[in-house]
Amino acid sequence: MEFRNLGNSGLRISELAYGNWLTHGSQVEQEQALACVRAALDEGISTFDTADVYANTKAESVLGEALKGERRESLEIFTKVYFPTGPGGKNDHGLSRKHIRESIEGSLRRLGTDHVDLYQAHRFDHSTPLEETMEAFADVVRAGKAHYIGASEWTADQLRRGHVLARELRIPFVSNQPQYSMLWRVIESEVVPASKELGIGQIVWSPIAQGVLTGKYKPGQAPPAGSRATDDKGGANMIGDLMKDDILERVALLEPIAKEAGLSMAQLAVAWVLQNDNVSAAILGASRPEQVKENAKAVGVKLEADLLAKIDEALEPVVQRDPSLTKSPQRSQLEKRG
């Protein structure tokens, strides 16, 4: 495993982070989830990313159980707050002081630790003054319950506004967690330049486009049994927009390029995001331990310019670059009304 600084901070994290969105507590049984975490640790992965909303808090509990007994100082544990948890009532979501202060307590209890290394705003909250949000995060940091603060899927403007307040409050706002892959490059034109200026690093999710970039989905064919595209617990809905024949046909063109590089298609996809020097880590999920071991082989791979150009040529017609697609839902859209 190789390690990078998280943004301009002194925190060193593994280039691959293990994430348990759509797996722990829902798609994958607990015994298998524990085996995947063990495989991650065996590969030298020290960074683990979760969120309170994943499986409505169950994912944090599974991760806490899986990491029990590990030396806490050797791990970097990240979690997030924003989306609805519990019954999803009027204060069970968002970035209000109330929800942040209550949510960090629940996350720490489920994770079995007295602090997280990074506490992230899972989206931007349009309904709460940003000053209130950042002051609440400052309280969390000063109480020793989080070392660093970050965001997820914030626009360049939102990152700038948050960073100004963080500097005023003297708390370390060091990261953003966006979707990023060969197919989804919406952060490149605005978010990445702003982040470099501010000293913010990207912890990217879905580097293999939820499995589409592995090549296992074929145009005109039904998805393989047991794959994310057949998961009725959320996976199929999330991957739906990528399961189009024009996208799958273009992805198929990557197979000879991966062979030229001596990589699997999944390894090529992971290595590709790690070529971006603003990426501090790529988050990988897994439903089987062997997936962790195979994808870890992407660490340290250098892709030459001519190979990167071939990837661009193969995918360009279906690459998404529009920065306006970085959006956060209004809290009113999330509240469950009984």
Quaternary status of these chains? single chain
Bin the strand percentage. 5-15%
Average pLDDT figure: 92
- CATH topology (fold) name: TIM Barrel
CATH architecture: Alpha-Beta Barrel
Enumerate the spans where pLDDT stays under 50 for 5 or more consecutive residues.
none
Total strand segments: 10
Q: In sequence order, what are the helices and strands, one letter per element?
A: EEEHEHEHEHEHEHEHHHHEHHH
The CATH homologous superfamily is termed NADP-dependent oxidoreductase domain
Question: Helices, strands, pairings?
Answer:
Blueprint: E1 3-5, E2 12-14, E3 16-19, H1 30-42, E4 47-49, H2 58-66, E5 76-81, H3 97-111, E6 116-121, H4 130-142, E7 146-151, H5 156-169, E8 173-176, H6 191-198, E9 201-204, H7 235-239, H8 245-252, H9 255-261, H10 265-274, E10 279-284, H11 289-295, H12 305-315, H13 331-334
Parallel strand pairs: 3-4, 3-10, 4-5, 5-6, 6-7, 7-8, 8-9, 9-10
Antiparallel strand pairs: 1-2
Helix pairs in contact: 1-2, 1-11, 2-3, 3-4, 4-5, 5-6
Key words describing this protein structure:
TIM Barrel; K_chnl_volt-dep_bsu_KCNAB-rel; 338 residues; alpha/beta
Question: What does this protein look like?
Answer:
This protein has 338 residues and is an alpha/beta fold. It has one domain: NADP-dependent oxidoreductase domain (TIM Barrel, Alpha-Beta Barrel), CATH 3.20.20.100. Helices cover 37% and strands 13% of the residues. It has an eight-stranded parallel β-barrel with strand order 3-4-5-6-7-8-9-10, surrounded by five helices. Strands 1-2 form a two-stranded antiparallel sheet. Helix 6 links the parallel strand 8 and strand 9. Helix 1 runs parallel beside helix 11. The chain starts with a strand and ends with a helix. The model has no long low-confidence stretch (mean pLDDT 92). This is Aldo/keto reductase. Keywords: NADP, Oxidoreductase. Belongs to the shaker potassium channel beta subunit family. One of its GO terms (molecular function) is oxidoreductase activity. InterPro entries: AKR, K_chnl_volt-dep_bsu_KCNAB-rel, NAD(P)_OxRdtase_dom_sf, NADP_OxRdtase_dom.
